[in-house]
Amino acid sequence: MNCIIRKRLVGLFTALGLFFLPLTAWAEVVVLHTNDIHCGVAQNLHIAQLAQYKHDLMKKNPNVLLVDAGDAIQGEPLGSLTEGAAIIRIMNSVGYDFAIPGNHEYDFGMTRFLEFVPQQKCGYYSCNFLDKRTGNPLLPSYKIFTLDGKKIAFVGVTTPETLISSTPVFFQNDEGKFIYTFCEDKDGTNLYAHIQAAVDEARAEGAQFVILVGHLGTNGAISAWSSGAVASHTTGINAIIDGHSHEQYSRVDKNKNGEDVIVAQTGTKLATVGKIVIHDDGTLTSELVRELPPPDPAVKAIVDEELQKVDETLGQPVGRMEVTLETDIDGVRRVRCGETNLGDFVADAVRATLHTDVALVNGGSFRAPIPEGTVTYKSLATTFPFSNTLVVRSISGAQLLDALELGAMNYPEENGGFMQVSGLTYTIDARIPSSVKLNEQGGFVEVAGERRVKDVMVDGEPLDLTEDYTVSGTAYIMRNGGNGITMFDGTPILRDTNISDLDAIAEFIKENGGVIGEGYENPTGEGRITILTE
Q1: Which pLDDT value is given to residue 53?
Q2: To 10 degrees, the CA torsion angle through 123, 126, 127, 129?
Q3: How far apart are CA 112 and CA 101, in angstroms?
Q4: Which residues of the chain are modeled with pLDDT < 70?
């Protein structure tokens, strides 16, 4: 309503001695959203600032909701040391209204995840997370809120990539058979059908607006399961709150009928906060908010308390870096699509600790650089928050070649399965289209055509496809099939150690006199991986 008309009505009601009720102050509904917090509650925008922002908005308009699109509980020591409990406590203090599990909500195992569900006050929702034994969903598909007379449904969806980007064995029984599904298939048909069914059911219950809260992604995501693909194969969705690919965007896609669908994602570690407004005329607008008010004191106190516990545990120094070991170069997470000095260093540490021919470290393991200066367990745990133990297998040259090919399949796009290496060198010919074939769960099946990976040398000698090599790496890829590593299935496990990746790195630093620098000066590594693009 026009402000002048509103003021005249207020004056009229006052003159008549009538009690004045707000006429349109509550006409809009505001949806705040976050994604991929990855335990970064105090690095960019502080999560206590988000809490205060919600409070401030609600003072003017009570129709405010806060939702999260997954990957909150893992990514730094704050999550790994408490197995997610600290982040759940913090999110509850902020006052989230709706949340979905991302792939990393499952990183502590299925039993632990199912413990989270009742602990998360706002609940977890996902329309495509099913028990294959019964065909039933394990979580509610959606939730409807009624605000300002408007019924707004939020539908949850979790990427089917979860089966490989978390730990595959968590979704299997003791015989290695998948007993949980995220409606994965090669062309996305199953996923779209489950999403559409949830949207239609919410509409049938009277929802006037439907917002899909999806951990789906764009760049680097499997295209059939991306937010854009979901938008274009469904109807009845007004907006998609996205996550998974750590991007910042607010864009407009088209649905199956050619109608506009807002798609928004906020980056990672609270780089921004999303804000979708449902206006009184039924239109929606979207923006990314980069400035927030001072933090809510009560929430900040909880965050400070949890961070202090981590600092006390991890503050002990283990050595010194004379160079910065990088994950990103020129704004690209190169550790997922090319060699970096950090990848070289960690692969060297794993191989030296376990005395193997080769070490493989998937690029998705790295979550932060190791800066120049004093190295503590905290800085190492920030880089490697997943608390992996190390495993040694005996693997044929052919299987090793398949693993490298799988890691290179998405280049130049990012891939969490891109292999950083020690003990070998290899070339990726990116001019050749990838011919890697995957199963419905995203696991490796075969290379159906010409290979991208060539000129593999182990200790200076050409890779022998029939020779067996000792290969070390984290249990995530060496034992549990992470990132689709199925080609190692059935090969002998020579050592299933209790050595963590952090302990191996710390020991490697100490064995090198407590100082790391020489040999790792170049951010792009020492030339173990060559990429041909022209």
Answers
A1: 98
A2: -120
A3: 13
A4: 1-27
